[in-house]
Amino acid sequence: MFLKKIFNSPRHKVLIGALCLLAVSLLDIIFNGYTWAQNHGNVDRGVTPQVPLADRQQKNKVFLEHADYLVADEKISTEYQILRGNVVFRKEGVFMYCDSAYFYDSSNSLDAFGNVKMNQGDTLFVYSDVMYYSGTDEIAQLRYNVRLENRDMTLYTDSLDYDMIENLGYYFEGGRIVDSENELVSVYGQYDPDTKDAEFLFDVELVNEKYVMHTDTLHYNTNTHIADIVGPTTIVSDSNIIYSQRGWYNTEADNATLYDRSILVGNNGIKLTGDTLFYDRTLGYGEAFGNMVLTDSVHNSILDGNYGFHDEKENKSFATIRARAREISENDTLYLHGDTIRTYTLDDSTRVMIAEPNVRFFRFDVQGICDSMTFVQRDSILYMDKHAILWSGERQITGNSIDLHMNDSTVDYALLPDYGFMAEFIGEVYFNQLSGKEMKAYFEEQELRRLDVNGNVQLIMFPMEEDSTYNKLVDAESSYMIVLLKPGQEVDKITMWPEVSGNVTPLYLSRKSQYYLAGFAWYDVLRPKYPDDIFVIPKEMEELFNAPVNNRRVHRN
Fold first, then answer.
1. How far is Cα 320 from Cα 305, in angstroms, rounded to an integer?
2. Separation CA 357–CA 541 (nearest Å)
3. Structural domain boundaries enclosing 429
4. Distance between CA atoms of 470 and 402, rounded to whole angstroms?
5. pLDDT digits 0-9 by tens, 329-377
């Protein structure tokens, strides 16, 4: 009775008719499937591969391999199809995955959304939230949370364009690359998976566990971990700072070869510069080729040459080929040359400098030569060994060895512990001369003021008369002598003891053989007159240094 009322009701008759039409429509969809969906904009489930038997290696051809759902609705678009669920595309050897996509079949282009993944073989994987691929120029634009992985290298950015023709990825709104050795950050960067070469531009920073590299342009290989420096670059570590604008840094081996006057600045005040600079961070070793300059700001000294090195761990240095050391003081600078010059530091932090052979040095107040020289900072003494010669004003001091003491960077005294000979040029062929077993010369205000001589003292003098002429020769011998000089180095007083023997001979009665003590030689031709004279080695100096000498001390330490 109830059902009869329902079927007889006009409203219910209309509802029942609509349900019957819907049932017929559903049956039609089931029987006609994909064709109806194509014509009327509905869903196809479980899409099979597009043209299954086609060559998948066709150039610039994108194939749809799979999707859970496909929607083709002309009311929405006649240019693309909508794909949803486990969407897979293939372009030659590259597979692209996403949650959903718009597929432009006619142009081989697509827009991919959600869990986007692109991989080539088993070595290159790219992930993002969104990807736009253009079949015209074969460029994939990946956006948001982009991650490119190539073996042990990972690139992170929010905007990456990948050129499938060149097989090159590049970002332009900031990104970073991380590998087993370093992390590199820049505004612009590009990466080639085939060569493993990367290029970085603008605000580039390479971060290593030992240092940080700052530059605006850097080339880097993620396989060799070598950074090519092609612009002004600063490398900062706990131990030093490196400045360079051209060269390369092997971040795996931790060494660098740098060009164009690169600079290595240590925290200990040492700065090393060269036309070409090699640096090994593990060994703490810097080597400079061509116009090497090593500056020590702590000790106010400069060491230079055409080749040299500095060991920052041992704190020792070396220079050769036109080697020169400059000890800078407030009042004067010591210019020192030797075929080789080396410095090192003792356990008590005392600095030692050794120059040998053919040593020549210049200061405005004193000049000298010797075969080898040692400077010990703790003693403030220049130890001159083998054929040592010292000049001050018109006086020349020679000895087997000379110890030149410095006080506040000025000459304080010179000690000749094993034979000393002093000669003073008077004029023409006349020289005041003094020799002894041991000699000590005292300086004041850059002038010789006192001379102490002990043992076998011998003297020849030409005293100046009141009319500034020389009329007599004085020769004397004793065991001890003290000579005092006035400012201007004029002799003030001579004291000899305990016994003195000698003669005073008028010049007109003297013979020239009486004018000189045994061993006298005047070496003015060897004297450096200017700072650059230290590099000039006269043949007479070579002859002198080849002559035998009774004493040669070992280097001080």
1. 5
2. 11
3. 419-517
4. 31
5. 777 888 999 999 999 988 888 889 999 999 999 998 889 999 999 998 8
